[in-house]
Amino acid sequence: MLSGLLIVLLPLVLGYLVPVRHPTVLAVINRGVNASVYLILLLMGFGLAGLENLAGQLSRMGGQALTLFLVTSTCNLAGLWWLSRRLRLAADPARVVPGAPTSKLAAMAGSLALVGVVVLGVALGLAAGRLSAIPLHAMAETLAEWVLYVLLALIGCQLRNSGMPLRQILLNHHGLAIALTLAATSLVGGLLAAPLLELRWNEGLAMAAGFGWYSLSGILVGDALGPALGGVAFFNDLTRELVAFVLIPLVIRRHAALAIGYGGATSMDFTLPVIQQHGGVGCVPVAVVSGFLLSLLSPPLILFLLTL
C-alpha cells in the first residue's frame, strides 16, 4: 500500500519541484489541468455505466453524498462559528471594490458543467456497453489512472508557481487558523459519517478530505474505491461549493471566518470573487491563504488515508 501511495504522490512532488517563469507555459499548464479534469470525469462516468444495477447504485450514491454532506457541514459550521467568535475577523463593507465581479452564475455554471461531463460519460458508457463486446469500462479505468498521474504533476506545478511564498502563508494567522479548523472539522465529520455510509474509518476520512475540491476528490477516491464512491466524494464537495455561493453573502459581514472557511479549497479561486464582493478586499488575503493551504493538504491526505 505504501508503494501505491508513493507512486501517486511522486508526480505531485515532481511537479512541485518545477519552477515556471514564462506566462505562456503557465497558461498551458492551467489549460492542461482543466482538460485533464474533464477527461477524468468523463472516464469516471464511463466507468459508472459499467456498474451492475446502475439505477440502484445512483440512488445509493445520492443518499450517501447527502449524508456525508450534512454530517461534515454540521461539523464545519459549528467549528467555524466557534472560530469566528474568537478571531474577530471582520469584513469591511467600506472597502468592497465597486463593481467587483462576483461571477456567481458563471462559477456555478462551471460547476454544473462538470456534472454534465459525468452524465455524458455515463451515456457514452451505456451506449458502448450495447455496441461492443470488449470490456471498455475496465480500459477506461486504466486510462483514467494514467491521466490522473499527469493531472497530479500539473497540479503540483500550479501550486509551486502560484505566487504564494511560504513566509506569507505562515504569517497570515487568520488564514492558517481557518484552514486548520475546516480541515479538522471535516475529518471529524468524515469519521462520524463512516458507519452511516458503511465504510471503514479511513475511507470515511478520505471521503471528507477533499475540502471542497470536488474535481480532485472524486478522481482520487474513485481511483482507489471505485467509481460509485468517487461519485459520492464528487457530489459531496460540489454541493459544498454551491451552498457556499448562497451562504457567503448572508454571513460574511457578521461571521467572516465562517464564510471564508466554509468554501474550503475554493476560497482561493471559485468563491473568491464572492468573498471580495461582499466582504471587502481585506478578506481576500485570508481567503487565498486558507484555500491554498487546503489545496496543498488535500491530495496527499486523501492518498495517505486510502492506503491505511
UniProtKB/TrEMBL annotation:
A single Gene Ontology MF term assigned here is: L-lysine efflux transmembrane transporter activity
Species per Swiss-Prot/TrEMBL record? Halomonas alimentaria
List the record's Gene Ontology CC terms alphabetically. Answer: plasma membrane
At the top level of its lineage, which domain of life is listed?
Bacteria
Task: Note the InterPro entries from the entry.
Answer: LysO
Membrane-spanning residues: 37-54, 66-84, 104-126, 138-156, 176-197, 242-262, 283-306
Protein name as catalogued? LysO family transporter
Key words, A-Z: Membrane, Transmembrane, Transmembrane helix
